[in-house]
TrEMBL record:
Keywords: Acyltransferase, Lipoyl, Transferase. It is an enzyme of class 2 (transferase). The keyword Acyltransferase applies. SUPFAM superfamilies: CoA-dependent acyltransferases (SSF52777), Peripheral subunit-binding domain of 2-oxo acid dehydrogenase complex (SSF47005), Single hybrid motif (SSF51230). The lineage of its organism: Bacteria, Bacillati, Actinomycetota, Actinomycetes, Mycobacteriales. It comes from the Bacteria. CDD domains: lipoyl_domain. Residues 3-78 form the Lipoyl-binding domain. Residues 169-206 form the Peripheral subunit-binding (PSBD) domain. Pfam families: 2-oxoacid_dh, Biotin_lipoyl, E3_binding. This is Dihydrolipoamide acetyltransferase component of pyruvate dehydrogenase complex. The keyword Signal does not apply. It comes from Rhodococcoides kroppenstedtii. Gene3D superfamilies: 2.40.50.100, Chloramphenicol acetyltransferase-like domain, E3-binding domain.
Length: 454
């Protein structure tokens, strides 16, 4: 008994694997052509697999529940030559003299299969999911069996193949793709395991015919730029991935009316005590963060994995995220909590100026304890920032916009911003993170609180 292996076919939509849910047959069972032998499930649908051969099941190569790649043998079916019964509709006496009563199973001597398919011993073409029985279409479309024997008709009496029987084999999604692209599947060379046109065949045909043959090929280097990942970019990428997948992030938001702070800012800029000092909204936000950290110290802590300890810092090295020619950098102001407003403003101005020139030294990048990122300078309202590794919190400052706001029982145009804080939930509980953000918002909405607490 010769064995024929059935490979898991391409089930369409470019899927490369499927899960075999259950078998409907077992070793020793007799199966007929197109009999359902298994149920498989892809990422898109559950499909019943019909047998492409008639015979006896010799072996099942895949267990139910397994994930199988397309093209993997899943079942062996014996052709049953040694015990086959001649088909009553095609008597053995009808065969030409000297011809075998059944088609040979050796691939090297078998007659050509229609559309690249392997013909079975019964002269029929195996069926793939969604492809149809092309070899039987013309004779059985009317629903009545053919009459007469092969011996009654000469070679010239065979009808010409119909358009349906010569139709290229392809799954419905592949045909849909071809129609969308205006491609005749007959022009596409098939590479499927059973001679069918696959999605890859169609896309390859599109690639080959996308440009006229006489057009000059496009230079790939002119269409894209490849930049080696190194230096600051490599460090930033490693740090962000390490932070995102190590610290469980939580982000909270608050929208606040900062009109009083902006009015205070105007007065500070006019003060003779701050002459020559650049006072910005970031300076006042930084001062509010430093005051809020004093009231909520868990946001100025670190997780020591080696000793399994939480390290609470009694100093604040305030980091400022800066976009530089070398990439994202987070230099920090050492002992910012001990500085006056004037000293803090000068330190922040110097820090950002050096960073934008790409001249920040390693010392300024080390030992940060909490960070502020100002996305408002790009006109962005809010974000969900990723923690700087080794820190417990980062505050995101959004754009300050004039917009309608409820003020003293009426609607008025006020200057409003959104603040967001991301924190490491291993170190900071929700209550502590919320209180910190509420404190910052309260100080910005009422500068008196900033003076009192700062």
């Amino acid at each position: 008994m010769g064995a024929r292996s059935f490979l898991l076919p391409d089930l369409g939509e470019g899927l490369t694997e499927a899960e075999l849910i259950s078998w409907s047959v077992g070793p020793g069972d007799t199966v007929e052509l197109n009999q359902v032998i298994a149920e498989v499930e892809t990422a898109k649908a559950s499909v019943e697999l019909p047998s492409p051969y008639a015979g006896t099941v010799l072996a099942l190569h895949v267990e139910a529940g397994s994930t199988v790649e397309v093209g993997t043998p899943i079942i062996d079916i014996g052709d049953g030559q040694d015990e086959a019964v001649p088909d009553a509709t095609v008597p053995a006496t009808a065969e030409p003299a000297g011809a075998p009563s059944e088609a040979p199973t050796d691939a090297s001597t078998a007659p050509p299969a229609t559309n690249g398919h392997e013909a079975t011993g019964e002269g029929r073409v195996p069926v793939l999911v969604g492809y149809g029985v092309t070899g039987e279409t013309a004779g059985r479309r009317g629903g009545r069996p053919a009459t007469g024997s092969v011996a009654d008709a000469g070679p010239s009496d065979h009808p010409a193949p119909s358009a349906e029987s010569s139709r290229p084999l392809a799954a419905p999604p592949v045909r849909f793709l071809a129609r969308q692209e205006g491609i005749d599947l007959a022009d596409v060379p098939p590479t499927g395991p059973h001679g069918e046109v696959t999605r890859e065949d169609v896309t390859a045909y599109l690639d080959r015919n996308a440009h006229p043959a006489d057009s000059a090929p496009l230079d790939a280097s002119a269409r894209e730029t490849r930049t080696p990942i190194k230096g600051v970019r490599k460090h930033t990428a490693d740090a962000m991935v390490r932070s995102a997948f190590t610290a469980p992030h939580v982000t909270e938001f608050v929208t606040v009316d900062v009109t009083p702070t902006m009015e205070l800012l105007d007065r500070l800029r006019e003060s003779r005590h701050l002459a020559g000092v650049r006072i910005t909204p970031l300076v006042l936000v930084a001062k509010a963060v430093l005051a809020a950290v004093r009231r909520n110290p868990s946001l100025n802590s670190a997780w020591d994995e080696e000793t399994r300890e939480i390290v609470t810092k009694h100093y604040v090295n305030l980091g400022i995220a800066a976009a530089t020619p070398r990439g994202l950098m987070v230099p920090n102001v050492k002992d910012a909590d001990r500085m006056s407003l004037r000293d803090l403003a000068v330190a922040l101005a110097d820090l950002t100026a050096v960073a934008k020139e790409g001249k920040t030294g390693p010392r300024d990048l080390e030992d940060g304890t909490i960070t502020i990122t100002n996305v408002g300078v790009f006109g962005v309202d809010a974000g969900t920032p990723i923690l700087n590794p080794g820190e417990a919190a980062i505050l995101c400052m959004g754009a300050i916009r004039r917009q309608p706001w409820e003020f003293e029982g009426e609607i008025a145009l006020r200057q409003v911003t959104t603040l967001a804080v991301s924190f490491d939930h291993r170190l900071v509980d929700g209550e502590q993170g919320s209180r910190f953000l509420a404190d910052v918002a309260a100080m910005l909405s009422d500068p008196v609180a900033l003076v009192a607490l700062g």
